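Inverse folding, one chain.
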């Protein structure tokens, strides 16, 4: 039976979830399921208002997306992005207590990331919480009083070890210094994980649409997963179920915002097949590793290197779609041709590229980037997004020709023809038609 209650639809009777049936119970679990909700007087949005862009965390207010006390929630969505589904599975399997809260002791950042002017410039940062790494420090009192506030950014230290870096050392392109690059080939880095936190009015403005249309489209295209998108206009912040961002800083984090220090940067979009397994149909891993090598050189020269890794697999179309496109490219009449590279993607996916780099500069602004001296990227979309957001770009560094895998020539020539930066200029029609990839029968 479905009944309407104050500010909610409630399921009662046979569909109820009874606490007695769960071995791990919590005080916040009730005997009804909240299907959707509407603004309520004195609700969390009023008790914990979020003033996006405010100058201090106290003025801005906390982002409360945890489910341990639904009455405190002041945003749409849940922590962990797509991983929130695995949390639900763990609770369903009775492997996790739904009331569990993280113990944040000793989890504070290993490097201090101070507020930057961009944090408070209207519309400059709309897709992450600038204070997301400091919740234990900034909202410790509320956490102590029982409000479940969680970090959306974590900062730690690590070492990277890549065989290509060892090859660069063997080839005398890199030399160990014992601080940034070690004799073992390890690279010391500061590693930063950033979960998406969307300010819906700012996202709508960034994409040139209305907030109402954005909310409705997000609701419809996720199969109605988040009813609050259309029923709770008072909730202006959304934690979307998408992948996160990881930033790797080589050198001093504070140097990123120092105008007197040079910055070498690569912004890289995820490609599991190449980045992890070395697939040779694209230039992703070779270009990523080249960016890391150049970042090490910059840091060793007194500057700083920055690698930003975005979870946007297959141009944000996903790996299934990407592999379908591979098959369509390889099986078309005339073979896998640079001349039809983007056409085949659009035929399968409906769009050539769904990454839409408008949100990409936000993490750069969060780190205080005002200029990039050397940008290891040929992408016109990334370049345009950075420049339009106010970031000055010095030198653009193309991937060295010797790093392009044999079957990736189709991709790189097609991208040059589509407007990607190339010191050699744009290839002509004959060059595109003559650039053909490996046949499926030859793998």
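Residues assigned per position:
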């Amino acid at each position: 039976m479905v009944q309407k209650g104050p500010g909610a639809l409630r399921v009662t009777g046979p569909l109820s979830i009874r606490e007695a049936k769960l071995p791990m119970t919590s005080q916040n679990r009730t005997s009804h399921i909240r299907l959707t909700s509407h603004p309520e007087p004195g609700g969390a949005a009023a008790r914990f208002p979020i003033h996006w862009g405010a100058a201090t965390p106290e003025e801005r207010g906390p982002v409360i997306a945890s489910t341990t006390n639904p009455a405190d929630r002041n945003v749409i969505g849940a922590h962990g992005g797509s991983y929130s589904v695995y949390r639900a599975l763990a609770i369903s399997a009775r492997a996790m207590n739904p009331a569990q809260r993280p113990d944040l002791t000793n989890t504070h950042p290993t490097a201090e990331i101070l507020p930057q002017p961009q944090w408070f410039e209207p519309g400059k940062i709309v897709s992450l919480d600038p204070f997301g790494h400091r919740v234990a420090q900034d909202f410790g009192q509320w956490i102590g009083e029982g409000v479940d506030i969680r970090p959306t950014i974590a900062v730690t230290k690590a070492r990277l070890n890549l065989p290509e870096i060892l090859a660069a050392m063997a080839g005398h392109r890199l030399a160990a210094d014992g601080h940034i690059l070690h004799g073992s080939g390890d690279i010391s880095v500061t590693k930063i994980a950033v979960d998406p936190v969307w300010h819906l009015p700012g996202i709508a403005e960034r994409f040139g649409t209305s907030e109402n249309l954005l909310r409705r489209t997000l609701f419809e295209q996720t199969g109605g997963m988040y009813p609050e998108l259309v029923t709770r206009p008072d909730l202006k912040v959304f934690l979307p179920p998408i992948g996160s961002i990881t930033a790797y800083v080589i050198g001093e984090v504070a140097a990123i915002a120092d105008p007197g220090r040079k910055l070498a940067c690569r912004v890289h979009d995820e490609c599991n097949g190449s980045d992890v397994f070395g697939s040779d149909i694209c230039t992703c891993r070779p270009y990523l590793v080249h960016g890391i090598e150049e970042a090490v050189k910059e840091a060793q020269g007194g500057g700083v290197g920055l690698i930003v890794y975005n979870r946007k697999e297959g141009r944000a179309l996903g790996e299934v779609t990407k592999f379908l496109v591979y098959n369509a490219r390889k099986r078309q009449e005339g073979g896998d041709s640079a001349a039809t590279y983007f056409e085949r993607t659009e035929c399968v996916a409906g769009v050539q590229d769904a990454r839409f780099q408008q949100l990409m500069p936000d993490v750069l602004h969060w780190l205080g980037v005002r200029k990039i001296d050397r940008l290891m990227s040929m992408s016109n979309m990334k370049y345009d997004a950075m420049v339009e957001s106010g970031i000055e770009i010095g030198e653009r560094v193309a991937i060295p020709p010797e790093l392009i895998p044999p079957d990736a020539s189709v991709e790189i020539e097609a991208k040059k023809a589509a407007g990607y930066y190339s010191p050699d200029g744009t290839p002509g029609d004959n060059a595109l038609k003559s650039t053909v990839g490996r046949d499926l029968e030859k793998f």
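The first helix runs from residue 44 to 47. Confidence is low (pLDDT under 50) at residues 1-23.
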